[in-house]
Amino acid sequence: MLAQQLSVKLFARDPAAVDLAGFIPIFHRWIQEGRLPDRLLIDVADYRHVPSGPGIMLIAHEAHYALESEHGPLGFQCARKRDQPGELEDKLVDGFREALAACRHLEDDPARPIQFRTDRARVAVMSRRFAPAGEATWAEARPAVEALAARLYPGLDVRLQPDTDPRAPFSFEIEAPGAPGLAALLDRLG
């Protein structure tokens, strides 16, 4: 299955303890330091005034990154916007690798602004051209999703839950109680 414009979101461990305003200077520092390799980081946008919205966004040429609560509780979302179509399994690995690495940068920040759950993630394929929402797409995508889950969470009881709303982009959640930390998951993706 081909996919394009994949979005991966990892949820905050304690959303109520997160001060979104603190991420504005952190993301500006990321721009100054070129913190995300191979990304042209452009600007920071503050959308805290939008209820259940994108929160604080770090805008890049190729992607955007947001601390958002649009889809579920507060979390960090990496969303590619200028990538070429590719095999879903490869897109999943790349998308998770990028999201996990960015989350690790945030957890390692001296301000310690946030901690992330690794036992739950939300994935969406924003390009409906290759992945229209629905059961047929889920049936086609499921083998690639299961392969990723087996790689990230070997030996754990993994639950996969597709979103069946035909009005929304194709998306699903992965839950794996007992998942290891960010570093271990990054190591598993190589």
Query: Domains counted in the coordinates: how many?
Result: 1
Average of the residue pLDDT scores? 95
Report the major sheet. 8 strands, antiparallel
- How many strands? 10
Helicity range of the residues? 25-40%
Order of helices and strands: EEHEEEEEHEHEEH
The percentage of residues in β strands lies in 25-35%
Structural class: alpha+beta
The best one-word shape is globular
| Number of helical elements | 4
Rg over CA atoms, rounded to whole Å, is: 16 Å
How far apart, in Å, are the first and last alpha carbons? 22 Å
What topology, given as strand order, has the largest sheet?
A: 3-4-5-6-2-8-10-9
Low-confidence stretches: none
What would you note in describing this structure?
- By secondary structure, the chain is an alpha+beta fold.
- The chain has one domain (2-189).
- The protein has helices spanning 23-33, 88-108, 135-152, 182-189; strands spanning 2-3, 6-12, 41-47, 55-60, 63-68, 75-80, 86-87, 116-125, 159-163, 170-175.
- The strands form two sheets. Strands 3-4-5-6-2-8-10-9 form an eight-stranded antiparallel sheet, covered by helices on one side. Strands 1-7 form a two-stranded antiparallel ribbon.
- A hairpin with a 7-residue loop joins strand 3 and strand 4.
- It is globular.
- It starts with a strand and ends with a helix.
- 35% of the residues are buried.
